[in-house]
Amino acid sequence: MKVLVVSDIHGKVNMINRVLDEAGEVDLVAVLGDITDFGPKERAEEILGLLVDRYVKVVGVPGNCDPEEIDEVLENKAISVDRKSKEIDGLRFVGFGGSNPTPFNTPREFDESEIYSVLSSLLSRDKPEVLISHSPPKKTVDLASGVHAGSESVRRAVEEYQPKVVLSGHIHEAKGTAWVDDSLVVNPGAVRDGNAVLLDIDGEVEVEFFSV
């Protein structure tokens, strides 16, 4: 399965269009949150509409900068895996949107205890899984101004359940990959800055970063 991974679009329609043109044909698009920059709903409809019109299969979660009204758009377009799971072509996608607490008081922040409670109720070792979490696991691809800003609870859940791949954004400057035991963690960087990833999940996972 060839997956286009996009995150932190922050309302930049021109940049998501450039990313889509560069990516070409894929089997699925994974959206990791911060679709908008604090709204509005209409911008989310425009951006997600571009994805749904171009690709049949799209899954995603909101980010900490996406207000609650964005949930309706994700649900109406059958994209959301926020706090739930969806199986596509034998691969189970599990999602958690928003972030652990930040210094910025953004619209969608959650206590670590809530994050762990939700993820531990969804994740399983029974079949290959992809975790879509806006916040990366702590001490992976999460370094911001010299501080590890990822979620302790996401890391704990990944350590315990070992999903095949963890897709996270949130920390724009921490583009890259890391491992938590046997789980590959990928931060594609921000679409706002022209960054995205092509991921091949058939067999051994292959990661291709690209910029536009």
Gist of the model:
The protein is an alpha/beta fold.
Can you count the helices? Answer: 5
The N- to C-terminal Cα distance equals 23 Å
In the CATH hierarchy, what is the architecture at level 2? 4-Layer Sandwich
Ranges where pLDDT stays below 50 over 5 or more residues in a row are: none
Helix content: 25-40%
Structural class: alpha/beta
- How would you describe the shape? globular
- According to CATH, the homologous superfamily is Metallo-dependent phosphatases
Strand content: 25-35%
On the 0 to 100 scale, the average pLDDT is: 98
User: Biggest sheet: strands side by side, in what order?
Assistant: 4-5-6-9-11-10
Can you tell me the CATH class? Answer: Alpha Beta
Main pleated sheet:
6 strands, mixed
Q: Provide the gyration radius in Å.
A: 15 Å
Please give the number of β-strands.
13
Description of the structure:
By secondary structure, the chain is an alpha/beta fold. It has a single domain, classed as Purple Acid Phosphatase, chain A, domain 2, CATH 3.60.21. Helix content is 25%, strand content 26%. The chain is built from 5 helices and 13 strands. It starts with a strand and ends with a strand.
Any chance you could write out the topology, listing elements then pairs?
Elements: E1 2-6, H1 13-23, E2 28-31, H2 41-54, E3 58-60, H3 69-76, E4 85-88, E5 91-96, H4 112-122, E6 129-133, E7 143-144, E8 147-148, H5 152-161, E9 165-167, E10 176-180, E11 183-187, E12 195-200, E13 206-211
Parallel strand pairs: 1-2, 2-3, 5-6, 6-9, 9-11
Antiparallel strand pairs: 1-12, 4-5, 7-8, 10-11, 12-13
